Fold these 3 entries.
Entry 1:
Amino acid sequence: FLGALTEEEVEEKKSHFLELLTSPSEDIRSRAWSTAMRLLEKGILRVEDLRARRGQFLELLRSDDPDVRSGAWSSVDALVRAGVITREDSHAFLELLGFKDEIVRSEAWVNSVGLVDKGVLTLEELAGRKGHFLELLESDSEDVRLEAWCLTGDLIDRGVLTPEDVREKRERFLKLLRSERVGTCYDFKYADINPEFPPLPGALWRAVISFSSPLDDETAVKAWGCVKGLITRGVLTSEEVKRMKDHFLRLLESHYGYVRPEAWRIVNELVEMGILTLDEVRERIRSLLEALRPEEEYNKDEELSIICLVGELASKGVLTKDEVEELCRGKGKP
């Protein structure tokens, strides 16, 4: 297409496109920056073209629109590799590490280690702002709090945090292991989807939301997945977690398809740490057999993951030879 244009026409169209990179519309600006990387790779745009406008890109990282922020963060790596974002831009990311909006701040901390690896930030700069991160460990938002706790291990390993910094807040993590939140993903007015649906009384509607949402179990199983790392780094003790094992055992029988297999994947490490016993696990083996034999077919990655899980459980004595054969028959394997 561009080959059919004169050099003047190409420059004119390029000029119009560059205007989109600074558009007051975040949606337009976000899409333009996504396209810009492809044009840069093709040699249509120059690094200097983008560097001159990178301030407008960096603004997208603090947008109120989560889709805009997500799209911007997904472009950061490519922009750093291309030399559009450099160490000179560290101030913009450092501001985000202490940003008032906890979700924006959380996203910045999740990406902070990658920015250190790319030379945009330093570990010393993260350590100097660790107070802003520690606040996230006590956030009222379970999503923010969980994300922060899942990141603590890496930050401890890199010297940004100490186990003592985190340990004093451990009760806020332990609460995630028994998450009982109502799933806000269902917290909409049914009339938005079906205007003819009769309104429900408030109490009944809340019950419907609570019954329908898997978010509480998903939060809990993800938190349990962080337990081993927190114990090995001295943030938690096995005894502290063991007192809450009934909440995990419930997840092994969760009726949400995603949660149950994820919980079973954590079983071995909890047994190894003395939090669960083999007898407690084997009492619930039937729920595992049901979870690994849903009616729908697995793709190849899921199939391989399940084979590995079955192998692990068999090696630890959680599954017997007969149970493994039963699983194979359920999946049509010889």
Entry 2:
Amino acid sequence: QAEFDWGDQPAFKMQGKLSQFDPARWVKAPQGRIDGEFVAAGTWHPEWQVQLSVPHVSGELAGQVLNGVAQVHWQAERMLKVDQMQWQWGRNTLQANGSLGADKDELRLSLAVDEPHLLTPFLSQTVSGRANFQATLRGKLTTPSVEAQVQAEDVQWGRAAKLAYLKASASLGAGANAALNLQLHAQRLRWNLPPASGTGSLAKLDEGNDSLRELRIDMQGVRAAHRIVAQAQWDGGQSVSVKASGKIDLPTWSSPAWSGRIDAAQLMGFVGGAEPDLVLHEPGLLSWSLDKFTLGAVNLQGQLGQINLDLLEWAPRSLSSKGRWQ
């Protein structure tokens, strides 16, 4: 049932009930039997405002218990208030509570995925493993500060990638001089790349493919000036280490950009021998955004020779480089 008022103060109201609803009859989804009700009301002029109430949802989906409630109030870019949000599907849970909009507002999120295989019908690959995500957002709706933690074990995405362990924590402030910190530790990462010809099938993830034994990334500082240290080691003894420094620009969450320099870099074990394959001898310039990657003024020397890279530019539809390898 829906009602619309097109007068000087336009408004709408929609409400409905579900009784033994089976989503598989309408969309690509598992079979289910779902009961519930909802009410949505608000306006779209002069700005969007929506109040959503889901007093209860219960039933089964893909043979697993499904329960949920939600009370949400949203005002365009000014305010988001979640009085209550709790969803459970099997052993997967989502919880949210709090608000964003004023300087002292706080919104907490918690997601636990212990049965990711239930998501397979909605994805292009089968998924397995366990993951837990928690986050706290504070301040303005459009530019909140964020603190987040994630931990995952035995995650596999079809036959494309497999991860034994991941633990990461991050904090990002709202201003240029606000804290920016990241600690990430991953172990036993395997992946399959599609054949270069674009034909053929992927190999099994445990048979002769790339395996990253350990990856560590540490970022410390503020948005306008921070340092990054990254280290990666492969099962075959190869390793890569990089140190960089720079700043991140975040005019909006959808358009991040980073610029700075590579202060140190070293490759070991790819060609054998006790000496480094390549070592950075002079700091290089680096910048990144969603639509462009630029690397320049890089001088690398080692067992692989000497590489002087004047400029490397990548864009979604182009790649250009200028330099010498001797």
Entry 3:
Amino acid sequence: GIAKRKITVPVAQVEGELVFRPQHGEIPGTLSFFENGTRQVYDVPEWMYREAAVLNQSVANPVASLIGGLNGISRAAFTTFSPAFTVANMFNDILPAMVRGGVLPTETARRLVLSFKSLESDPLMQAYRLSGAYQGRFYGKDAAAIAKEVGASGGTVIGKHFNLKKAVLDAIPNLGEKGEQASRQAVFEKNLNKTLPNWKIMTPEEIAVTPQARKAAADAVEATINFGRGGYLIRSANPFVIFLNTSMEGTKLPFRTLRDSAQSRWTLAGVGAGVAGITAYNMSYPEYFDVPDRVRWGSVMIMLPSTKTDLNGKPVPKYLTIITNTREWAAFFAPLTY
């Protein structure tokens, strides 16, 4: 692997001699943990050490924690608990999953429907999580937060737990999580079908430990915005500027796609040709230019025959919005609809 165990040679010491050691933190260029009471130290690449240091600083910095908490209120109101954002985000994630992951919208829709099944009854979802694909996400709680909610501590065994009040309060975030994961699960399943065709006769645990599943998990995380990525400077400033890291990673996603995959380049070209054709069709309606600019330029929409007129007798625009906001892909599609 890229991390190597650091061999330390024990040195004999005089009984009662004072030995000074750092009270906290890591030796520069290393990461460590305790295993059976013994500290294990690993030499790691510079970027890995730097990322771990940023994580520790962001957690330990009281100013960043305070401002991040205040920004979290706005973030929750605008996104996590917003029905409009939740639904729009589902449709928006279909586009990068199709271009970058090669899955059709119908495949994402199928996984969305299946995601309403329980985790216990969906082997693919189990393998998906066990292989490491359930990370770098916007929605969803970690294991510690879930355990705290149900009051589990000290080795408590948790069975099925249902709280009606929490279910109502978390209805929108849970829907957002299912929508976010549907695109990634579709990519994960497609890659398994291609590289591990006999996965359906394997247990989730057997699937998860295969190199094919690990690669499929990595590709699934990268199919949409990976919220776990980000450079040192941006992640340090992220608590102070709402959605900063998300915006930066979203901006880079299309260009990484063009760099990494020839198939994605052809898919993007095909989608662009489709958008150009739809725009030419939309322009055949004179009222198309009365559609608000933010809708015409920033979304994928289709004009429908108008059934109403305004006070001046002009047709009132009637249209169907397929993708409400192309977001990170607007750099490619907005010029076609401008």
